[in-house]
Specification:
Tetratricopeptide repeat protein; Rossmann fold; 67% helix; single chain
Length: 1073
C-alpha cells in the first residue's frame, strides 16, 4: 500500500491447501482464536422453523420455541416503536441498543418481530453469533451489508467483553451508511453500565436501553395472552379451543412472564388432548412438560428399533446438553463419556439418539440444549436433589454432573465448558435455592472457577439472594489487581456486594475506609466515575480524621485516597478540585515522607507528575513546569541508587511529562532530548513486557512526534505518528474504553503531519476518523472532550480547505469557533490561544472564498487575542500579524497592511529561537508579504530587499529539509519577477517568473485542489512579465491561456475569490491577440 494512503485498491488471491480451512470477509476483519473465528455474522432466519403437528403432540415443548412462531406476535407496540425510532434515526454510522428482561419475558420474540419489520423496510438483517454458540454456517459474513444493516445478537451477556467489543468494532459494520446492532440479554444491572461506557468511548453510539416490562402484568392481559396462545396451540394439537379451561391461578408473580402464560396454555391444550389433569402452579407446569419429554423418550425407546438409548440415559444426556450447550459431535461423545452418561462404543449412538429428539441447529453438532432456556433451567433444578417437589424424582447423578464437567474443562479441548456450565447453573440458582446450595460447595472448593466463568457470570453470582459471603470472600483475592476488560464488571459487582455487607458489620474506621477506597478503584475501572468519587471521598474523610490522631500510621492511606479521588474528579472534568487535592497530598508527602524510602519517593514523584498535569489542564503552563522538573529529579536520583524496572518506568513517565510541559511552553528544543530518552526507556521495557508498557510507549511516541513536528522535522514526526497510530489501533482492539481517546489524538497528529508534507488527500481520512471518535466521546463526557472536538474541527478544516472544499472548511471552522468562545470566556488562560487560532483560520478561509471584510474582522480579533497571551505563546502573535497584513491588503488598506507586516517581521526577529525551522519559515513568509505590501505603495527598493531576503531563507530551509512545501518559494520568486520587471530587467524577470512556474507545477499536479489556484497566479505573472517586456508573445499567450483555463471553473464556484484573476487573464489574452 502506498505510504500515506489509508485505502488502496488491490487484488488478493487465496488458495486452500488440502485439509485446511480458509476464512475470508469483504470490507471487514476476521478475529481468529485457536484457528477459528471468534464470532460470525449470519443472515437472520426470517422464515419460521416449521413444527410438524404430529411431532408437537409427542413433544409439546417444541411449540414454545420462538423460531416456530406458532403463537402470533402481539403487544409490545411501545417497545417496537422505540426500536423503530432508534433504527430509523437519520444519523449515519453505527449504533447499539440493548433489550433486556428476565427469562421468559419475550425478548427473543420482540427481536424476531423487529427483524421481520426491518427486512420489510429494506434493511439487511443479520444475526451475530459467538464462537461458543456454533451454527451451521462456516462463513464469517453472509454477503453484502447493503446501505442499511440490522444485526441481532442474542445472549449478549454471555459474550466475553473483549470479544463483544471486537465484534462491534469490525469494519464491516462501518460499510453501510447506517448499521444498528440490537443486543438481547436477560440482565442489564451488573454488566451493561460498564460495557455501555466502553462502547461509547469506542466511538459507538449507544441508544437508550429497552427494559421489558411484563407483557402480562394484569389479570386481563394474562387472560388475553393465555387465550391467544391457547387458540394457536389448539390448531396444532387438533382440539377445540372453546374447550380449553382457563387456569384458576394466573394472578401470581410467577405468571408475569409471557412464557409462563404460554406454558400454562400449552399444558392446558395438551391435557385436553390427552385427558390429563392441569397442574396449579408454575413448577407443576414445568414438571408436566418435562414428564411429556420423558413420555416421548420412552415411546421412541419402546417402538423405534434404531433408537437404543434408555430414557434414564437420555435424561442425563439432556441434562448435560443443557449445561454445556451445543458441541461438535466428536466432543459431545467425549463429554458424555467423561461425565459417566455413557461409555464407548455406544456413546456416539447416544449423541445421535439425542439429536433425533433435539435436532441441532448446526450440522455436525450434538447436545442441542432443551429450549426455552427457562424450561431447561427448571429441568436441571428438578433433577438436582433438594427441590422438595414430590411429583418429580431427582437424580443423585445430577448433583455431581457439574463437578464432572468442570473437571473435564481442565483439559484443553474442553476449556470452553466452564462458562456455559456455570452460567446456566448461576441463572437457575436465582430461582431455585437448592441449586444455589449445590453450586456453592463446588465454587468454595475451587473459587478460581467463578473467575474463569467470566465477568457477567461473576456479577450474576454475586447478585444471587443468599449467596454465601464466605464464597465471595474466597473469590476476592483471585480478582486481577490491574484492569481486565472481561472481568472488570464482575469484579466491581463482587467487591460492591462484599463491601456493602462488611460495612454493615464493622464500626472500625480504618477497615471502612480501606473497603471504600478499594470499591472506588473497581468502580473507576468500569467507568462509574461518580460512584467512585463518592466512595473514595468518604474514605478520604475517614482517613483525615484518623490521621489527626496518628499521622505516621495513616498518612500513606490518606495520600493514596487523596490521589485516587483527584483522579476521579479529573475524570469527571472537575480539574480545579483535583488540583486542590493534589496540592494537599503533596504537602502531606513533603511533611511526612521519608527521603530514604523508595516507596515514598515513587509516590512523591507520581503526585508531582499528576499535579503538573492538572495545572496544565487548567492553563497554568508556567506553574506546571516546576513539579514536572522535580519529579524527574527525584526519579533520576532514585534510579542512580536502585535501577529496577519500576523505577525506570516511572522515570520514563516523568520524562515524557516534563517534555510535554516544555513543548506546551513553546520550548520544543529543550523537550526533544527528554522525550527521546523517555521513548528509549519505554522501547526497552516494551520489548520484555509489551502488555504492560505498549500503552505508555504509544503515548511517548505520540508526544515525541509533536515535538519533532514543531521543530520542522516532518519526516521523523510522520514516522512517529504512523507508529503511534499502529500501536493505538492494536491497543484499542483489546481495550477501546481505555485507549480510544489516545487513538483519536494519534490520528489527528498523523493527519497534521501528512498535511504539512502536502499529502492532504491522504491526511483527510485520518482527520475525519479522529473527529468521529471525539464526537462520540463527547456525547457522554462533554466536559472532557468538547475542547478536543473543537481542536479536531480546526485541524480538519485545514485539510478540507486544502483539498478544495472551501465552503465545508469554513463551516468546520465556524463550528470550532462556537465551541472555543464560551471555553475561552470561562478559562482564558487555557483556551484564549485556541480561540485566537480559530479566528486566524476563519480569516484565511473567509478570504479564500471572497468574504474579505469578514476575513478582516476575524483576523483583527485574532491579533487582539494573541496579544493577550503573548507571554505564554510568543510565536503565535507574529503569524497572526502576518495574516492580518494580507487581509488588510485584500481590502485596499495598504498603509495598515505595511505597518502590521513590519511588526510581524520585527516580532519574528525578536523570538528567542529564530533558528527553529518554523520560525525561520514564518519570518520568510512575513518578509515576502512585506515586499508585496511595499510594492503596492511603490516602495520598490525596500520591496526587493525584503523579497530577496525571503527567497534566501526559503532556499536555505529547502536545503535543510527537501520535503518542505515549495509553494512559498514560488510565491516569493513571482514577487521578485515583478520587481525586476519594474526595474526594466525584463530578461531577469522572465527567468525568475519561469522558475516560479516550474516550482509550482509539480505541486499542482500532485495536489490540484490546493495548488492549481497558485499555479494560475504564477502563470498570470509570467504572462504579465513577458508581455510588459515584449518577450516571446507565444509563450505569454500560452501562459495566459493556461491560467485562464484554471481560473474559469474556480471563478464559477467562488466568484468573489477568483473573478479578478479571471478578468486579468482575459485582459492578457486580448493584449496578446
Amino acid at each position: 500500500m502506498p505510504a500515506g494512503d489509508p485505502v488502496s485498491e488491490f487484488e488478493q488471491r487465496i488458495r486452500a491447501e488440502p485439509g485446511s480451512t480458509v476464512y475470508a470477509v469483504l470490507n471487514g476483519d476476521i478475529h481468529v482464536r485457536n484457528g477459528h473465528p471468534v464470532y460470525r455474522f449470519e443472515s437472520f432466519a426470517l422464515e419460521p422453523r416449521p413444527v410438524d403437528p404430529t411431532q408437537a403432540r409427542l413433544q409439546p415443548s417444541r411449540v414454545l420455541a420462538t423460531e416456530s412462531r406458532i403463537v402470533p406476535f402481539a403487544g409490545r407496540g411501545d417497545e417496537l416503536a422505540r426500536l423503530t425510532s432508534w433504527r430509523d434515526d437519520p444519523e449515519p454510522g453505527l449504533s447499539v441498543l440493548l433489550v433486556h428482561g428476565p427469562g421468559g419475558q419475550g425478548k427473543t420474540r420482540l427481536a424476531a418481530q423487529f427483524a421481520l419489520a426491518s427486512a420489510a423496510n429494506h434493511w439487511t438483517v443479520w444475526a451475530g453469533h459467538h464462537s461458543s454458540d456454533p451454527t451451521a454456517t462456516t462463513v464469517v459474513a453472509p454477503g453484502k451489508t447493503g446501505s442499511a444493516l440490522v444485526v441481532v445478537v442474542e445472549y449478549a451477556e454471555r459474550w466475553p467483553v473483549d470479544d463483544l467489543q471486537l465484534f462491534l468494532q469490525n469494519p464491516i459494520l462501518r460499510v453501510p451508511q447506517r448499521a444498528r446492532v440490537l443486543l438481547v440479554s436477560r440482565s442489564a444491572g451488573s454488566w451493561w453500565p460498564g460495557i455501555r461506557h466502553r462502547l461509547t468511548k469506542a466511538e459507538i453510539a449507544v441508544g437508550e436501553s429497552v427494559d421489558l416490562a411484563p407483557l402480562a402484568a394484569s389479570p386481563e392481559q394474562r387472560r388475553d395472552a393465555f387465550m391467544a396462545a391457547g387458540d394457536a396451540f389448539a390448531r396444532v394439537f387438533g382440539v377445540r379451543a372453546n374447550l380449553i379451561q382457563l387456569p384458576e391461578r394466573l394472578d401470581g408473580d410467577e405468571f408475569k412472564a409471557v412464557l409462563s402464560v404460554h406454558m400454562a396454555a400449552l399444558v392446558a391444550v395438551d391435557a385436553l388432548a390427552h385427558g390429563r389433569r392441569v397442574p396449579a402452579d408454575l413448577v407443576g407446569l414445568s414438571a408436566y412438560l418435562l414428564n411429556r419429554e420423558y413420555d416421548y423418550w420412552q415411546s421412541r425407546y419402546d417402538h423405534d428399533a434404531q433408537f437404543t438409548t434408555a430414557p434414564a440415559v437420555l435424561a442425563r444426556t439432556v441434562h448435560t446438553a443443557t449445561l454445556t450447550q451445543r458441541q461438535p459431535r466428536a466432543l459431545a461423545g467425549r463429554i458424555l463419556a467423561g461425565t459417566g452418561v455413557a461409555a464407548e462404543p455406544e456413546v456416539l449412538a447416544v449423541v445421535d439418539d439425542h439429536a433425533g429428539c433435539y435436532p441441532p441447529a448446526a450440522a455436525g453438532f450434538g447436545l442441542e440444549p432443551l429450549y426455552p432456556d427457562r424450561l431447561g433451567e427448571d429441568f436441571l433444578a428438578l433433577r438436582i436433589p433438594g427441590h422438595g417437589h414430590g411429583d418429580y424424582a431427582p437424580d443423585p447423578w445430577a448433583r455431581t454432573a457439574p463437578e464432572r464437567l468442570l473437571a473435564l474443562a481442565k483439559e484443553s479441548d474442553f476449556a470452553a465448558l466452564t462458562r456455559p456450565v456455570l452460567g446456566v447453573l448461576i441463572e437457575a440458582a436465582h430461582r431455585w435455592p437448592h441449586v444455589r446450595d449445590s453450586l456453592q460447595p463446588i465454587l468454595l472448593a475451587d473459587p478460581r472457577l467463578a473467575v474463569d466463568a467470566g465477568g457477567f457470570a461473576l456479577a450474576r453470582l454475586a447478585e444471587i439472594d443468599g449467596i454465601d459471603s464466605e464464597l465471595l470472600d474466597a473469590i476476592l483475592p483471585l480478582l486481577p489487581i490491574d484492569r481486565h476488560v472481561d472481568l472488570d464488571v464482575g469484579a466491581a459487582r463482587v467487591v460492591q456486594v462484599v463491601t456493602r455487607a462488611k460495612l454493615t458489620h464493622t464500626e472500625d474506621d480504618e477497615t471502612r475506609a480501606g473497603l471504600l477506597a478499594a470499591l472506588g478503584v473497581r468502580q473507576q475501572a468500569v467507568g462509574l466515575y461518580r460512584e467512585a468519587h463518592q466512595c473514595v471521598a468518604e474514605a478520604v474523610a475517614i482517613y483525615r480524621g484518623l490521621a489527626e490522631t496518628a499521622p505516621q500510621h495513616f498518612r500513606r492511606p490518606l495520600i493514596r485516597a487523596l490521589h485516587l479521588d483527584a483522579i476521579a474528579l479529573s475524570d469527571l472534568g472537575r480539574t480545579e478540585e483535583a488540583l486542590a487535592l493534589a496540592e494537599e497530598l503533596i504537602a502531606l508527602e513533603r511533611r511526612y515522607g521519608d527521603p530514604t524510602s523508595e516507596a515514598d519517593l515513587l509516590s512523591m514523584a507520581n503526585s508531582l507528575h499528576h499535579l503538573s498535569i492538572y495545572l496544565s489542564d487548567l492553563g497554568q503552563l508556567h506553574a506546571s513546569l516546576a513539579p514536572a522538573e522535580e519529579a524527574v529529579r527525584i526519579l533520576r536520583d532514585l534510579n542512580a541508587r536502585v535501577a529496577v524496572t519500576a523505577h525506570l518506568a516511572a522515570l520514563a513517565f516523568s520524562l515524557d511529562g516534563l517534555g510535554t510541559r516544555l513543548y506546551e511552553l513553546a520550548r520544543p528544543r529543550d523537550a526533544l532530548p527528554l522525550m527521546r530518552e523517555g521513548v528509549d526507556i519505554y522501547r526497552s521495557l516494551a520489548e520484555t513486557d509489551p502488555n504492560l508498557y505498549l500503552p505508555s510507549l504509544s503515548v511517548a511516541v505520540h508526544n515525541l512526534g509533536n515535538v519533532l513536528s514543531e521543530l520542522g522535522r516532518r519526516d521523523e514526526s510522520l514516522f512517529c505518528a504512523r507508529e503511534s497510530v499502529r500501536i493505538d489501533r492494536q491497543l484499542v482492539a483489546a481495550n477501546p474504553g481505555a485507549f480510544l481517546p489516545d487513538l483519536a489524538s494519534s490520528l489527528i497528529n498523523l493527519a497534521i503531519d501528512l498535511g504539512a508534507l502536502g499529502q492532504e488527500e491522504s491526511a483527510l481520512p485520518f482527520a475525519e476518523e479522529s473527529l468521529e471518535i471525539r464526537r462520540r466521546l463527547c456525547v457522554t463526557d462533554p466536559g472532557t472532550y468538547r475542547p478536543a472536538v473543537a481542536r479536531t474541527l480546526l485541524n480538519l478544516s485545514v485539510n478540507v480547505s486544502n483539498t478544495g472544499d472551501r465552503k465545508r472548511a469554513l463551516d468546520l471552522t465556524a463550528e470550532a469557533l462556537g465551541i472555543f468562545r464560551p471555553l475561552a470566556e470561562a478559562n482564558p488562560a487555557m483556551y484564549e490561544e485556541w480561540l485566537a487560532g480559530a479566528l486566524s483560520t476563519l480569516g484565511l478561509q473567509s478570504a479564500r472564498i471572497g468574504r474579505r471584510y469578514e476575513a478582516v474582522a476575524a483576523a483583527e480579533e485574532a491579533v487582539q487575542r494573541f496579544r493577550r497571551c503573548e507571554d505564554a505563546f510568543p510565536d503565535s502573535l507574529p503569524n497572526s500579524l502576518y495574516g492580518l497584513g494580507v487581509r488588510y491588503a485584500e481590502v485596499g488598506r495598504r498603509d495598515e497592511a505595511v505597518a502590521v507586516t513590519e511588526e510581524a517581521v520585527a516580532t519574528y526577529r525578536a523570538l528567542d529561537d529564530l533558528q527553529q525551522a518554523d520560525h525561520r519559515q514564518g519570518l520568510a513568509r512575513a518578509l515576502n508579504s512585506l515586499g508585496e505590501r511595499m510594492a503596492e505603495l511603490d516602495r520598490d527598493a525596500e520591496a526587493l530587499t525584503a523579497i530577496t531576503e525571503a527567497i534566501a531563507i526559503f532556499r536555505s530551509l529547502e536545503h535543510d529539509d527537501p520535503s518542505l512545501d515549495r509553494e512559498e518559494l514560488s510565491h516569493a520568486l513571482a514577487n521578485r519577477a515583478l520587481q525586476e520587471s519594474r526595474r526594466g530587467a525584463h530578461q531577469d524577470a522572465a527567468v525568475t517568473a519561469r522558475e516560479a512556474v516550474s516550482v509550482c507545477e509539480p505541486l499542482a499536479r500532485e495536489h490540484p485542489a490546493y495548488y492549481l489556484p497558485e499555479l494560475a497566479a504564477r502563470l498570470s505573472r509570467l504572462a504579465t512579465v513577458l508581455t510588459v517586456g515584449g518577450l516571446d508573445p507565444r509563450e505569454a499567450h500560452a501562459a495566459a491561456q493556461q491560467a485562464h483555463e484554471i481560473y474559469l471553473p474556480l471563478a464559477e464556484q467562488y466568484p468573489q475569490a477568483f473573478a479578478d484573476g479571471q478578468r486579468q487573464t482575459n485582459a492578457l489574452l486580448e493584449s496578446a491577440n
